Amino acid sequence: MNSRKKLWYFVPLLGTVLCMIYIAAATKSVVYSDYIRLINSYLPDVWNPKKFFVADVLVRIPVNYLGRIINTLLFGYSATFDMVLGVLCLGGSGFVLAAYCRRKEIGVFWYLLLMFLLFSLNKWEMLTNGTGWCHFLAFFGFYFHYLVFDRVWERRKQERAGLLAEEEKKKDQKDRRRLCWLPWLLTLGTAGPYCGAYSAVLLFACAAAFFLDWKEEKKPDWRYRIYGFHVLAPLLLYLLSNAFTVQEYAGATGRSIGEVLGDNAALFPKFLIKSFSSMVLGEEVMMDYLTRLNMGMALGYLIGFLVLAGYFLALWMQIRYSVYQKTVLPLMFILWGGLNHLLVLSARWIFEKSSYGMSSRYALQYQVGIFGILLTFAIVKKWRFAEKKAAQRACWLAALGISGILFAGNCCTTWREIKTAPYRKEYAREVENMALHYRDVPDDELEARFQYRHGPEKIRRALGILEEQGWNVFRD
Length: 476
Hints:
Elements: H1 3-26, H2 34-42, H3 63-75, H4 79-103, H5 108-118, H6 124-127, H7 133-161, H8 166-191, H9 195-217, H10 223-242, H11 257-263, H12 267-277, H13 283-293, H14 298-320, H15 323-326, H16 329-348, H17 363-383, H18 390-436, H19 443-450, H20 456-469
Helix pairs in contact: 1-4, 2-20, 4-7, 5-17, 7-8, 8-10, 9-10, 9-16, 12-14, 14-17, 14-18, 16-17
């Protein structure tokens, strides 16, 4: 690996290290929130096959079982172990994006901006909640799968013309085999609820490739039907498993969608616009600025509309300059991000809070659309904006403006989170001390501190399991 190539991969490595430093500064290895449910469901007998071979096992994300076995055996059920896994998988996503940017010769400015947004602390809630490590792993796999599909897409014309060199043919064959087994591994092993948008985009890409080849060559490539089958089949298995699951929703109002929209018709558009705005300013930073400026949500809605405008501008560029003909990954990211916004809305409207979509826990899903937008800008700039036409200059200025807003907003969010990190660690210390004396803590305080609203008896039961096994805060 030459020195220039090493520099491309140094950036995601640096981002991974910085996120590790943040984890050390903002957290302690103490369990709370979602961990309470997991402890009561799976511990201490992590080897029990009856807990694995259940109808809704795919919803429970099978890779978690392996993670729990390793964690309990070697690390005494450490939350820090899970958080480190999450950061490493986030770094893996960075290496995949670096490989794509290097292959497409993306400009340094766009590459660094992309890496900054990937490792931005707008996703602090996911980084500091170890139970979400498998979601970082899933997105790492999704990025890699889309990269493989993009490579196959890029080679398809040369392959039809018989112009692929022998070495490239071997690489293409390997990538085509990956397109068959990756969906099974990801959808059934790691994806969980995220498999819906991931699979939908792949099915769209397979259909698009099939019909584009049919249109251009008058001879369709039937292999895309095979790839589509390998996406659809595991998705149907997941949906079958999901039909057996029982969800717990603390805070849901229980009203029907008709009742909700009858009382608050603007809930859905407000939810969506706020979710778009969260890619610029995190929820806490946004509320802080709105309070200082005394503007209500006007600034939030403005930012959300600007991000939405970025989506439309990137889609227009994709069509106007046929970007998708040579590389489909940016378009897949754009569609993926948009679908994620809609899926979060479809799952969270039951809480009847339009601000719910701004939560940091969804940044991992939303950011893929931003990556698609920026990659589209970068590629079109490289191909077309050398021409001095007024319309193109206007588009270029709009692209730069949207990119600048994303950068500035994430700077604010990341800086605030760096300053907040010591307070988050202090909170974790208080939870740790409370865990050690959980029998004597009042019920309401126990629920509030452990952020688990399903009854104090469940919290005490989970901590009792850890105490009996000598795990986590009870470990010597």
